[in-house]
Amino acid sequence: MPEQLQPDPKRWTALIFIALAQLMVVLDATVVNIALPSAQKDLGISNGDRQWVITAYTLAFGGLLLFGGRIADLWGRKNAFIVGLLGFAAASAIGGAAVNPAMLYGARALQGAFGALLAPAALSLLAVMFTEAKERAKAFGVYGAIAGAGAAVGLILGGVLTQYLNWRWVLFVNIAFAVVAVIGAVTYIHEPAKGRNRNRLDVPGVVLASAGLITLVYGFSRAQTDGWTSAVTIGLFVASVVLLSTFAFVESRVRAPLLPLRVVTDRNRGGIYLSLGLAVIGMFGLFLFLTYYLQQVKDYSALKSGFAFLPMVGGMVVGSTQIGARLMLRVRPRLLMGPGFLVAAIGMSILAQIKVDSSYAEVLLPGLILMGLGMGTAFMPAMSLATYGVRPEDAGVASAMVNTSQQVGGSIGTALLNTLAASATTSWAGSHIHSLADKKNPLLINEAAVHGYSVAIYVAMGILLASSAIAFTFLNAGVQNSTARADGDDSLDEVAIPVVAH
Predict the structure, then answer these.
(1) For residue 456, which of 426, 422, 429, 407 has the smallest C-alpha distance?
(2) Beta strand spans in 136-175 (E)
């Protein structure tokens, strides 16, 4: 093995700080949700504008991920990681100190921009630091558990901070995360010398990809508020298709593309991006509806609602570290991802049975445990295979595609499933609520809402089944039991992924 590929002796300590940074980014997608009502009241944000606290983050994060991934390849992953952490902390401080809505929206957009630099840098650092099969399995087991469970942890942390301190601390807490991670990165992270992309930045690709992804994510946001058939929504979707199609054309022509098409046209990586994106649609929809169900129907506090998701977090940790990591060296990735998404779909089918008077122990508990186990088992090999065998100079952008598929999936899930739930609720109310007394009956109002949640969760179950089918069909990589070497030559994929049925 070449000297520059010898494993770093401090890599396991470095993993702690990489995982901490990833947790900060992932949980920030949901930690603010719990605190939003308090922030809205404190800053005088209107109901029509409150979505921008969430949307400003997702637009910047989703739109700039590919750019951030390529910057990590060009500039060095450790450098990008540290700058991303410092920027994220500064943006969090500005948001926590916000004195008006515009200041909060701007801070959230800055968080998203620096998160788009930080997230692919973190994942690609793992890809280049852990090259031995058994170690890679353990490292990605930890990372997969955090990536899957971080959103649920955000709900818990958001509840604790909002209830016992105030909403500003859901942003200020990031400063502590970032400072610890920066100190750890400077001390323990040593990026392998080989593998930076020395080509010039593909500026047209950056502009087209960022504009296309921002337009796509914003389109789903407007679909949620304006409807799917509004002129603005349709116009945004058409614009995103044109921009992203032009991006694909440009990338096939330029010498040093932002996103080398070999990264996404690889059968396994393409299958992972698609199946992960679909799975996240279902998972984000579940968080949304169960949060509403627990707080509005079951009258749980924000804190209690957060803790209600703990069994799912536990299931994800077990699925990722004890099932996925242990079996990854023995079975093909599709035999983990396919069954994993299938188990998650079974859990979703149980959760779809919720009623106004459902018992947490009888319905939510088993459903959440199965969801966690399934998603944890599937996430772990997906995160590893998505960067397994990729050329060193492409590790950042390949990692960015993992995050992009999840971010776009989350945006689609929130908009699509919320629209379906609202439509089902309206339909049920139209056939069951007739008199003025009915309209004031809290039981009927709750039954209408729960019917909508149930319908949307059934759709999410179907989406998870589709994820399972894609994993079984597309993925044909062999067992990840060899060193993930990356020589940068044209024979890379055959070296790094030795058992692929072409």
Answers:
(1) 422
(2) none
First-last CA distance in the chain = 27
Mean pLDDT over 190-209 rounds to 75
CA separation for the pair 382, 95 (Å, rounded): 33
Comparing CA positions, the residue from 313, 384, 19 lying closest to residue 180 is: 19
Angle between helices 267-292 and 365-387 (to 10 degrees): 150
The number of CA neighbours under 13 Å toward the Cβ of 216 is 25
Query: How far is the CA of 432 from the CAs of 296, 356, 441, 451, in angstroms?
Result: 20, 15, 11, 12
Least confident segment among 7-11, 147-151, 261-265, 402-406: 147-151
DSSP letter for each residue of 385-406:
HHHTT--GGGHHHHHHHHHHHH
> Using 50, 70 and 90 to split pLDDT, how confident is the model at 480?
low
Q: What DSSP string runs through 429-452?
A: HHHH--SHHHHT-HHHHHHHHHHH
Distances (CA, A) of 319 to 129, 343, 402: 23, 11, 19
Contact 120, 396 (CB under 8 A): yes
Residue in 459, 489, 283, 306 with CA at minimum distance from that of residue 376: 283
Q: Percent of the chain beyond pLDDT 70?
A: 90
Residue of 150, 145, 151 lying closest to 380 (CA atoms): 145
**What DSSP line would sit under 235-269, residue for residue?**
HHHHHHHHHHHHHHHHHTTSSS-SS-HHHHHSHHH
Burial class of residue 322, CB neighbours in 10 A (0-12, 13-18, 19+): middle
Domain ranges within the chain, ordered by starting residue: 3-201+258-496, 202-257
Q: pLDDT for 353-370, tens place per residue? A: 999 999 999 999 999 999
> In degrees rounded to 5, what are phi and psi of residue 500?
-125, 125
- What beta strand segments (E) does 248-377 contain? none
Region 207-223: mean pLDDT is: 85
CATH class of segment(s) 3-201+258-496: mainly alpha
Per-residue pLDDT of 134-174, as tens digits, reads 787 778 777 777 766 676 778 788 888 888 888 899 999 99
